[in-house]
Amino acid sequence: MASNEIPAQDFNPLNSIEQWEDDVIERYPEAGEPAKAKAEFRNYTDSAKEASVREFYRLNHKYQTYEFVREKENDFLRFNRKELKPWDAMEFLNTLVDDSDPDTDLDQLQHLLQTAEAIRADGHPDWFVLTGFIHDMGKVLCLFGEPQWGVVGDTFPMGCAFSDKIVYSEAFEANPDTYDSRYNTKYGVYEPNCGLKNVHMSWGHDEYIYQIMKDYLPEEALYMLRYHSFYSQHREHAYEHLMDDHDREMFKWVDKFNPYDLYSKSPKPPVVSELKPYYEALIAKYLPETIKL
Ligand SMILES: [Fe+2]
Ligand SMILES: [Fe+2]
């Protein structure tokens, strides 16, 4: 199904995109550990919030097809929507307030600053701090009218069989690629251990920010950006058969990044005006004057 045929009611099942992240934290309460037992995870009660998270995964798994992903790549990777200074792009992201979720108290910029500040406090290199700061900038896709399940959600390889380690994998029954012999075998369109550089991931904010930043940051940073929502690999190791040795080396950095994304909750929210000079200097060191979205 082409994306312009998706019914309007299937766009935004969540009250806020943070509901997906809250659900990831519930699934992975401990750094580096695999998911809680599936039976437990699937034991959704009837709260409206849980129903909307379940609906979110259902739609994500139904609509993320190889064709959908290629269509989004061909459209968004032309970067013809906006050209902004990096800080202004962050402020643009921060106009994304879709929130009627009482549990979410931080805005986008505060989540990013909190992640980055936790990385900085641990004495990591400055490019790692900058990576923390920009890692969710790709969520501007929401502001370009993209459906929530095409912006956030666990990411996974397209064009080959969906792993049963992907959250709520039963929902792939509704995905046409499940029945397409080009895409439904273990390797699908790929060769064994071809390396993730050859693999098309499901479309979302991770791939988009990677593509925006790919000329400006060290490779370790680019792996963190591109694969930070690829939980079925970095927590469950479900796609070893597509990874090469270089990916495995680089995924040490993805693993290092993940706890900062999920678990850095500072007691007081970061104050943007106090931190802005430091982050403006980091941006000036690594990024061009303007970036294209
Ligand atoms: Fe993210
Ligand atoms: Fe994040």
**Could you describe the largest sheet, including whether it forms a barrel?**
2 strands, antiparallel
Secondary structure tally: strands? 2
Radius of gyration using CA atoms only: 18 Å
Mean of residue pLDDT values: 93
Percentage of helical residues?
Answer: 40-55%
Order of helices and strands: HHHHEHHHHHHHHE
Ranges where pLDDT stays below 50 over 5 or more residues in a row are: none
Gross geometry: globular
Question: Total domains, how many?
Answer: 1
User: Count of helices?
Assistant: 12
Strand order of the largest sheet: 1-2
Bound small-molecule species: fe (ii) ion
Amino- and carboxy-terminal Cα gap: 25 Å
Quaternary assembly: single chain
Q: Which structural class matches the secondary elements?
A: mainly alpha
- Measured by DSSP, the beta-strand proportion falls in under 5%
